[in-house]
Design brief:
The chain is built from three helices and 23 strands. The protein is of the alpha+beta class. Keywords: Coiled coil, Signal, Transport.
Length: about 375
């Protein structure tokens, strides 16, 4: 091989090696790739500013009922032999409504009356003998007297049992419901029909303690009935409880209709009650929030997310009262001016930074 050719190939290889080495060196000395820092995500949060609300601005859901109502039942068991009325019938006080088979009761009464007749004769003879001749002792007379008294009691008891085979109307009214058919076997205290006085109707509602209706006797209200649209009926407070219910911590309030304006209002109709404040200056206020703001914990308590001055979410346990439509009364642990998250609360965490925003309905 030509020595000059060999030297040429070697030189080219050396040049190629130098180029490759230079490229690798430049690559190694280049700037390290920069890792971009990700800014923390700020969660947008729909909030509402806590504000006091007038009690009369609230509405209360209620149900129309008869002021006088009776669930009618027999005091004893037996077989129905006659139901003298049907649903919708108007009845008068004392009218016979239903009867049980009374044959056994009549037989028992006849036997008790016969026993009374015999013991009465025995008692009169013994008393006459004791008073005239004292041929019998006072103790023997007492025994006869006791038997006579027991016989009288048995007759009275038999009469009551015979009366128990009948149901009569305790007041004037309308048969609103009949729960059994004739000839059925019924048990003692089993309701067989319901009697209502439709001439006196009222509405029952449940309210929180801050609402004025619970403590002001002359407070009035207005009722709107879903079955009779575009009409309002005046109500007058009748009764209210002084102890809250154990489960909802609300007070029961009953308001009576003043004038039905000729409309046929019936028990069971849904009513919306709007309180009317007679003294607006003394009217109580309360705080409400949307139901969507509440978060339950695993202990059965409720809390909300309050946004602090640093736009961070803070957990705040609250006491709640009555629910009205889509809002609930907050009875403790919130004050006007505080900002509460009212949507997406399940994804909020303690200390999370949020960006409060306002919707079109006034929430901020």
């Amino acid at each position: 091989m030509n020595p000059s050719f060999t030297r040429s190939i070697a030189a080219k290889r050396s040049l190629l090696s130098a180029v490759i080495a230079s490229a690798l060196l430049l690559a190694g000395c280049g700037e390290a790739p920069q890792v971009s820092a990700t800014a923390p995500v700020v969660k947008p949060a729909l909030t509402e500013i806590v504000a006091s609300q007038r009690a009369s601005d609230l509405t209360f859901n209620g149900v129309v009922r008869a002021a006088q109502r009776a669930d009618l039942a027999f005091r004893i068991s037996g077989r129905l032999t006659d139901i003298a009325v049907k649903e919708g019938d108007t009845v008068k006080k004392g009218q016979l409504l239903a009867s049980l088979d009374s044959r056994d009761a009549k037989t028992a009464l006849e036997a008790a009356q016969l026993e009374l007749k015999n013991t009465e004769q025995e008692y009169r003879r013994a008393k006459a003998i004791f008073e005239k001749t004292q041929a019998i002792s006072k103790a023997e007379l007492d025994k006869v007297t006791n038997r006579y008294d027991l016989a009288k009691n048995r007759v009275e008891e038999a009469k009551r049992k015979l009366e128990y085979t009948q149901i009569t109307a305790p007041f004037d009214g309308v048969i609103s419901e009949k729960t059994v058919e004739n000839f059925a076997q019924v048990q003692a205290n089993q309701v067989i029909m319901i009697l209502q006085d439709l001439n006196d109707l009222e509405v029952a509602i449940e309210i929180p303690h801050r609402v004025m209706l619970s403590g002001v006797r002359n407070t009035r209200a207005i009722a709107e009935l879903s079955a009779i649209p575009n009409q309002q009926f005046d109500l007058q407070l009748r009764t209210y409880s002084t102890q809250p219910s154990s489960d909802s911590q609300t007070y029961s309030v009953v308001l009576g209709f003043e004038d039905l304006k000729g409309f046929r209002v019936m028990p069971g109709m849904s009513a919306k009650v709007l309180p009317v404040a007679e003294d607006t200056a003394a009217e109580n206020t309360l705080i409400t929030l949307p139901l969507t703001a509440l978060v339950p914990d695993n202990q059965g308590k409720q809390f909300v997310w309050v946004v602090n001055a640093q736009d961070q979410a803070e957990k705040r346990y609250v006491d709640i009262g009555t629910t009205y439509k889509d809002r609930v009364v907050i009875t403790q642990h919130l004050k006007p001016g505080e900002q509460v998250i009212i949507a997406g609360v399940s994804s909020v965490r303690e200390g999370m930074t949020v960006r409060p925003y306002t919707d079109n309905n006034g929430a901020q």
